Structures are given as C-alpha cells and as structure tokens.
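Input set for joint prediction.
Command: fold jointly, output tokens.
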Amino acid sequence: MQRIKFIDRMAQGKMSRRHMMQSAGAFGVGTLVLPHLANAAEVLTCLEWGGYDAADYFQSYVDKHGAQPNFSIFSGEEEALAKVRAGFAADVMHPCNYSVGRFVSAGLAVPLDTSRLSNWKDIFPILQAAEGVVENGDVVMAPADWGNSSIAYRPDLVDDDFKANPSWSIFYDDKYKGKVSMLDNELAIIIGAMVAGKSYDDVFDMSGDALAAAAKEWGTKAIDNSRFLWTDASELQQAMASGEIVAAYAWNDLIKNLRSDGIPVEYAVPKEGMFTWFCGLTLLNSGKADPALAYDFIDAWLSPETGKVLIEESGYGHANMKSFEISDPAQVEAMGITDPQGMMADTIVFRNPSDEVQTEHNRVWGDLKALKL
Amino acid sequence: MGFGLLAPALTIMVLMLLLPVMALVMLSFWSQSGFDIDRSFTLENYWKLIEPSDEPTVWFGIPFYLKYPIPVILMIKSLVMSLVATIAVIGLAYPMAYFVAFRVRGNKAFWIILLTIPFWTSYLLRVFSWKIVLGFNGAINSGLMYLGLIDAPLEFLLYNPTAVIITLAHSWVAFAVLPIYVSLEKIDRSLLEAAADLGDSRWQRFWRITLPLSAPGTIAASLLVFIPTVGDYVTPTLVGGPGGTMIGSLVQLLFLRQDNAPLGSAVSIAMMLVIAVLVALLLWAIGYRKMRARRS
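tokens >
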C-alpha cells in the first residue's frame, strides 16, 4: 500500500520536492544495487496481488535474508496461471480458496509440509481444514488473509433508495450508467443471475445455454454501465475519490484507504449477500529458488505481526488467531466480524467451478468484453 | 560482397523476428485441450475465425453471419481506429514538416530536436499523461469548469475509442514528421521557382509540385503509423475502457486470460496477413494511378 500512498501524495501535491528527490534517489540507488544481490543466489520469486509486495507483509523474511524477494504483480489468478504456464519461474503464488484448485489441476502446486511453518499451529482450525486449503488430502495453500467482496459506495453521491436497500442491482441499473465500476471478472455475469433471484450455489458453475443467456442479459449490462472494468485497485481508488465512480465492486481495503484520505465511503451489505474469500500462499514447482526460502516467506505471511498490519492497514482478516490479540482493539472492533467461522456463516463463500466450466467462463467473459462498442 | 556488413542485422532479425514468427505460425496450427497443447496439425483455429453461422451477431448495425464474430469485428474496428489515427497524424505532421522544411532558415536540426522532445519520455508515460489530461478531474475538465463553460465534468473524454485515437495520434506524430520532412527537404527549389515564373499561384505550386514530390515520404509515414497502431495493446488498455478494445487486446486475452495460445496465434497471424494485403493493395493502387497518369 506504500506505493499507492506515495502516488496519492504526489498527485495531491503534498509531497515536497526534497522528499520526492530522496525517494527518486533511493529508487535509483536501489536499482543499481539490486542486480548485484540477485546474482548472489537464486532469489525467491513471488506472484502477488498489487499492494501485497510491501515489506510490512513479510518483515521476518526481510529481517532474516536481508532483502525482499522478487515480485511479479497480477490482477487476476487466471492471468498469473497463464504466466506460470508460459514459463515464468515463480516459487510462490498467492491464490484464493476458489482459485487454488486451478493450480493443482495444472500440476503446479506442491503440497506444503506444515511442520516447516512455525506459525501453522496458530491458524484458525476452520481455515486449516477448509476446502481450497486442503485438496485431495494435501495442504496446497497456507491460508493467510481473508476478507470480503461487496459494494463500496459514496453515500453523498448515491440515491437514498440504494442506501436504504443496498443491492448488487446497482451495476445493472441504467440510472447509474457510467458511474459504477465492476471488477473485470466473469463474476459480473454470476452476480447478475443472483440479482435475478438465483442463489450463488446454483449459478457459480452455470454453463452452456444458461451461461450464454445470463451473459447476454447481465454481463452485457454490467459492461455497458461500468465506466471501466477495474483491474488496478489504485485506479479504482482515485476514481472513487474524485466522484467519477459512485459505487464499485470492492474489497475491504478500499474502504480503509479512502476513509484514511477523508473521503466518505460505505461498505454495503447487499440484499443478495456479500462475499467472503480467503487467500493464502501456494508453493509452486516452477520456481528455481531454494524451497527453504519459500517456506520462510510463507511463514512470514502467517505471522501475527503480518496479521496486525493487514488488520490495521487494510481492514482484512488474518488467518492467525494471535493477530487479533496484538492488533489495536479499536481497529478490531471496527472490523465487525473477526472470526472466519462467523464470517463464513453470514456471507457467501466463493467457490471454484470445475476446470472446464472455468475455461468456459473465461471465454464467455472475454468475448462479451470484446463485443462492447 | 557486403554480407559482412549485413550480418549483425541479419542475425538479430532471424533470432528476434523470424524465429518467433515461425513459432507463432506453428502454434497456430496446433490446438489447446485443457491445460495441454495438442501438437497434431489442424486448421481448426483458422476455420474458427471464418466459420459461418445462420444467426447473425449485430454490431454497429452490421450483421455478421459468423459463429465466432469477435476477431473479425475487432479487426474491422482496429483498422478503422488506426486509419482515423493515421489521418490525424498526417494532418498534424505535414504542416509541421512543411514549416521546418520551407520556413525555417538555418538551424533546422534544432527545430527537429524541438519536435521530438516529447518523445524523449517513455511511451507509457505519454499515455498516462493523456489519462490525466482527459480524465474526470483532469486538465480539460477542470479548465472548462474553472472558466464556467460546463457545470459537471465531461465524461465522454476518456474510456472510449475516441480517447484511444487521440492518444495514438499524439504518440505517433514524431515518427511521421521525419520522413515527410526528409522528402520535402529533397524537393528541388528551382522547380518551385520555375512554376512561379510560369504563373502558378502558391496553391497551384503546392498542389502540382510539393505534394506529389513529397508523396513517397507521406506514404511511408502513413504506413509507419498505420501498421503498428492496428495491433496496439497498451493504449486501448489504459485509456480505452470497456468500449475501446482493439485486436491486440483480443490477442492478449486469448493468450493470458482464456488460455488458448493456438487461437491467439491464429488471430495474430491473420492480423498480420490482413495488414500485409491491405498495404500491398494500397501500394499497388498508388503505383497504378501513377502509371495511368503518365500514359494520358
């Protein structure tokens, strides 16, 4: 998140010339020094979500090894999967409960030896055994962060009707044409079917004619009405801050970031339901670095200190029970539900369709976007 | 023989251009099944691009009787967008080149350098700056609002095909100025004097001497802009929004999101062929007209 804050401050003109020069200088020096470090031994390479490449999230790894791993940022798991399959030598990837199965099917995920993770014993038991963490009896993902997907909206810019009765239908409502932003993901079709009254469990793996019909009716609408389909969280954040977007599909951290900038924003509990995801670290067999490095990195992510940063800076939950004990109680209070079990009971947990259906979803969504004039 | 001089360039061309293109051609005759690539020869990918269907997909009022109409539609859209961008580029670049070639006395190099200054920054930065200029609270919108000409920001500026065309036009102007400038510079000034002596007006001189003699440079400049912009991917991704996608976006989508590299390769190869045929047709048409002009 440091990167985003830096850009924000720069954009708002709050950054002094001296600070700017310092940062630029540090970057220049860093770029000069980095290749020499990289030559020393194979550096760990991680595929990460934007923002998670900040050292706060794996401080113990940096303390122990003296340097950060290499990062490659992705905006969706399918993109990361394609990159690894095309030959990108990543050691660690950060998938989620609904997407890790794809890496297992592709023969890329290596089962984790949990005895090599010192923080494993403090992970919520429900997460230790959850579908997506364990596949075919093997632990394939060390659960780290969890949170929600719902609608972030500007209470000063949306109608009272929506505020009284929030619904995912805002993305399909012509009244908000050009003022909303959906995630660039086939969820736009699935959520549309939910707006039409279906339950998530019935539609998350729809295919064939049902999918085509829903895509035509709901997917097209979401694409037409979205100002842009977002892939970059900082772009979305700027658009919501300026009021260009009044409502968007968003994760918890957007709310936290916007509020810390003093922008009024609310996180809706839509009548169709809000989503829960949990993500974690998966060891890949495509990497070149020593697996011990990967285990250190994963263990750092599971540490309570990382959890504290996640909770206080992003408003996400963490898989380590101790995180909640050492975090600022006021911040924990503000999160609402702090127990993944309660969260999963009250919300819709994302699910993973079969590989064939996922491929079909990717294709249908891609075609739909291409047809927009 | 001079092949020694050519060798470095030839080696690089073979390694960096010919081999990858060959790989792409090969890939386009294979097929994707699940996570694996089936290496048996098939024309299926190309058939998919033109497979007819009874039910038309209507796009922009035009019915496409195709089962998978997206590549064809995006191809047409990309060609039209690039064509408009190219015309805009030539429209901007020609007067600039004319000014430097005919109006500037002395120090022409200085002016050429001045023209290229914006291009010392990275392409990505220039595209991003257009985002700032055209954006919701960007330069144009805040300027107009400050002047009181509009109450609310104009939303049609960004995230549509027009934004892509504006950005492309600006990004490629410098590449067009140089070839046009060179061909204008080469024109023998005594021809212009002779025309003036024989009573041609300024406009007639331009129309009958300057323009035809600078045509090679102008055509080269158009091709230099048109060919790469058809397949551009960065610009539509950053300023295009949901409606500004081009054929390059489809290739990216097929390779990275839809996990169908063979079909993606077929689309790229088809795109290269279409552009090659169009360019060949254009050159042939120009040459043809010249011949006819000489005969009559």
